[in-house]
Specification:
Elements (H helix, E strand, L loop, with lengths): L10 E5 L3 H12 L3 E5 L3 H9 L15 E6 L12 H8 L3 E3 L1 H11 L7 E6 L4 H14 L3 E6 L15 E6 L2 H5 L8 E4 L7 H4 L2 H9 L10 E5 L3 H13 L3 E6 L7 E5 L2 E5 L5 E5 L9 H16 L4 H8 L10 E6 L2 E5 L6 H8 L5 E6 L1 E2 L14 E7 L3 H8 L5 E5 L1 H15 L3 E5 L3 E2 L7 H24 L1
Parallel strand pairs: 1-2, 1-3, 3-4, 5-7, 5-8, 6-7, 8-9, 9-10, 10-11, 15-20, 16-18, 16-20, 18-19
Antiparallel strand pairs: 11-12, 12-13, 14-15, 17-21
Helix pairs in contact: 5-10, 5-11, 10-11, 14-15
Length: about 475
């Protein structure tokens, strides 16, 4: 754990008692603060009490006693409306912050020689893969590497820092909204497309949250910016004009006079006097497709940004084992391969997986995002059949009508069973792809739980097959 500095002898309210909130509460106490914990969900309160915490009902508490509110990133700060805890904090003049800000202040308060390297990753899609890939490269290069934030462990639950450590952090727009003083040695914006607009009041608010990752960088720091979308290209142009840090544009769609780019699977480094071929990404089995080539370009640039040699960074790209829930093969039964892409929580993310297979049996649906799957129309011809689950099923069925065969399966288990039956009956090599293009919260706690439900359903089918074979 990383003991939080700056609140010694004072009380911090903590609202939201999932992974992030409990890790923050422990870290605040370890740094000498008192904590007042609350959550609207009885199960979360019970879990906190089981972990040894005493609860404080923040609905009736005296907010003048609090030095700050540590708010879970899942709780609305401004849109669609401020949460009641936010309103109470503002009325009492209480500072509102998140766990990343607590981490940043603790790092900034440490002596220079004890501060770790920080690589921070954001973007609409590809964050988790890129974060894990950078962590893999750094660890393989012998760095003391910790990976967390919006992936794996909450940042304050990671091992305490020292001057030789490297923290590789995935940061969501929600987390960045609560962060003001983070100063990453390397900041990455992979791409920007519409997402979470209800939480940010529109596209400008969403882009503004993403840009916070760059706010405190200066001379000696590196900004890695994906320029394959208009928003990323604009950000790159605007910060280039500021000219305070090293800026590395990355692309997987075009050659550039400056930056790191991938063309047809070949990675080129054009950060020096001339472009040189750095790696053949087609050899990296866990990085298929153009979207992963951009992720690889960003990871390579980030590793170089903290002093890892170019040839070493390129070498370690090849041994990356992949990431759970992102185009992850979870099983093969006969000629049918099952691919878990539960991390695809919007249409743009689903496009990346759907574009990688010429034909597939598609499991999609959940809690729909703005725009649904309308933008995926050019890929509907690849769908052998769609199996729709969750709240989005009726609307998705309507969009697919006349474009691709579809059935409203309802549940994950039913969808997997139906997709397997149809794929097996084809007699061909087949892909059953879970790439939902939706949030998971209608039926699951998060996308990981949804991916694990898919994995479990596949394993049950495999077990049933073995049982029949034995009989």
């Amino acid at each position: 754990m990383i003991p939080v500095r700056g609140f010694e002898g004072r009380t911090v309210a903590v609202f939201g008692l999932a992974r992030t909130g409990l890790a923050a509460a422990r870290a605040l106490e370890a740094g000498g603060a008192s904590v007042a914990l609350w959550d609207e969900k009885p199960a979360a309160r019970q879990a906190a009490e089981a972990a040894g915490f005493t609860l404080t009902d923040l609905t009736t508490a005296d907010w003048s006693q609090f030095a700050a509110l540590m708010l879970s990133p899942g709780v609305p700060l401004t849109h669609p409306a401020p949460h009641w805890t936010v309103e109470k904090a503002r009325e009492a003049g209480v500072e509102i912050l998140g766990d990343i800000e607590l981490f940043a202040r603790t790092v900034n308060a440490a002596p220079e020689h004890k501060r770790p390297k920080i690589i921070a990753v954001t973007g609409t899609n590809g964050k988790s893969t890129t974060t894990a890939l950078i962590g893999h490269i750094c660890a393989q290069a012998g760095r003391d590497t910790r990976i967390g934030g919006n992936i794996g462990f909450g940042v304050l639950g990671l091992e305490d820092m020292h001057g030789g450590a490297v923290y590789v952090l995935e940061l969501s727009s929600y987390q960045l909204d609560l962060t003001t003083s983070l100063k990453p040695d390397v900041a990455i914006i992979l791409n920007v497309s519409p997402d979470h607009l209800d939480r940010h009041g529109g596209m400008e608010g969403y882009v503004g949250a993403k840009r916070r990752i760059l706010a405190n960088q200066g001379k000696g720091d590196t900004a890695v910016i994906g320029v394959d979308d208009p928003w990323g290209a604009r950000i790159c142009t605007e910060i280039t004009a500021a000219n305070r840090r090293t800026i590395v544009p990355v692309s997987a769609s075009k050659a550039m006079g400056r930056g790191v780019y991938a063309l047809d699977g070949l990675l080129y480094d054009a950060t020096g006097e001339r472009a040189v071929e750095a790696a053949d990404l087609k050899r990296a089995r866990s990085l298929p497709g153009r979207h992963n080539w951009q992720n690889a370009a960003a990871a390579y640039a980030a590793a170089k940004g903290i002093g890892i040699a170019a040839d070493e960074a390129a070498e370690h790209l090849m041994s990356f084992p992949g990431l759970a829930h992102r185009m992850e093969t979870v099983g093969t039964i006969g000629k049918v391969r099952f691919v878990n892409d539960s991390k695809a929580t919007n249409a743009d993310a689903a496009r990346q997986a759907m574009s990688s297979y010429p034909k597939f049996y598609w499991i999609a649906g959940g809690q729909p995002k703005a725009g649904g799957i309308d933008t995926l129309g050019d890929l509907f011809g690849r769908i052998e059949k769609a199996y729709l689950i969750g709240e989005a099923a009726p609307a998705f069925a309507q969009v697919l009508a006349g474009q691709a065969p579809a059935v409203e399966s309802g549940t994950m288990e039913a969808a997997v069973a139906q997709a397997f039956a149809d794929a097996q009956a084809s007699g061909q090599d087949a892909i059953v792809l879970l790439s939902p293009a939706c949030a998971s919260f209608d039926q699951f706690t998060d996308f990981e739980a949804r991916g694990e439900a898919f994995r479990a359903a596949v394993q049950r089918l495999a077990g049933e097959g073995q049982a029949k074979g034995a009989a």
